[in-house]
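thought: user wants a sequence for this fold. calling inverse folding tool.
action: design(structure=
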């Protein structure tokens, strides 16, 4: 379990930025710029905080929840069942697996470790630095997944947006489910997650047009709902909390 944070400062919406025709699905930060996956137009977009497009890379197949690590972007191609690696704006490789994916929807990198949300296989595919391990199977009980859409490695845990079980599920790195969050909070499609620290977990509640913030024990500590239209992914940066709206084609920037 994580521990409670007694000094949490609530977020408030400061600005909403038009993403100019982008249909955003995933967001990450690399070298002080935002990268957004535009799933409907099969491209990756590099943008500023005011929505200015700095670069566009085409040739993807419905890119989903992306990740950045060590100067590289990792892009799950939902339509072609692979993970594309970008470096300095160029496609350099695809991630080599000893297993097959069926609509990868999210990825997280931490050192030598990799976790992939394998949507139609209802599992997480986890590389522990030595071998690949499948985590979860289709179902609704603890330890089971139902269309996972996003994943994040944080310290010794694997956090999963267990989307259509309407919860976040946390596993240890042996694949054991150790905690579920959000099941009692009327969530409907938990699509994107971001773990900022041991006391702050953020999740997009896609169908209810909300972002929910949980503390270390999994207690709901704030709901954001102003000007959200199908929020699908989010990150916390030094510039604030960034939430992308799939339907609204906008970026919400929150400040504390």
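)
observation: tool returned 256 residues.
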């Amino acid at each position: 379990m994580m521990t409670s944070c007694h000094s949490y400062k609530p977020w408030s919406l400061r600005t909403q930025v038009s993403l100019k025709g982008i249909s955003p699905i995933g967001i990450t930060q690399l070298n002080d710029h935002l990268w957004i996956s535009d799933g409907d137009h099969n491209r990756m977009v590099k943008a500023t905080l005011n929505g200015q497009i700095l670069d566009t890379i085409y040739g993807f197949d419905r890119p989903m929840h992306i990740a950045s690590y060590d100067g590289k972007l990792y892009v799950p191609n939902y339509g072609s069942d692979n993970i594309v690696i970008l470096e300095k704006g160029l496609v350099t490789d695809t991630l080599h697996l000893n297993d097959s994916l069926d609509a990868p929807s999210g990825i997280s990198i931490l050192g030598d470790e990799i976790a992939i949300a394998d949507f139609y296989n209802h599992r997480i595919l986890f590389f522990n630095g030595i071998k690949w391990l499948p985590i979860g199977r289709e179902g609704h009980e603890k330890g089971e997944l139902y269309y996972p859409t996003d994943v994040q490695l944080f310290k010794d845990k694997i956090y999963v947006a267990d989307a259509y079980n309407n919860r976040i599920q946390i596993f240890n790195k042996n694949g054991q489910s150790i905690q579920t969050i959000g099941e009692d909070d009327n969530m409907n499609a938990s699509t994107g997650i971001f773990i900022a620290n041991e006391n702050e977990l953020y999740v997009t509640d896609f169908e209810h047009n909300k972002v929910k913030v949980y503390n270390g024990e999994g207690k709901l500590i704030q709901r954001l709902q102003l000007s959200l239209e199908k929020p699908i992914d989010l990150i916390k940066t030094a510039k604030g909390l960034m939430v992308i709206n799939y339907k609204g084609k906008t970026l919400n920037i929150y400040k504390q």
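thought: summarizing for user.
answer: Here is the designed sequence. The chain is about 0% helix and 55% strand.
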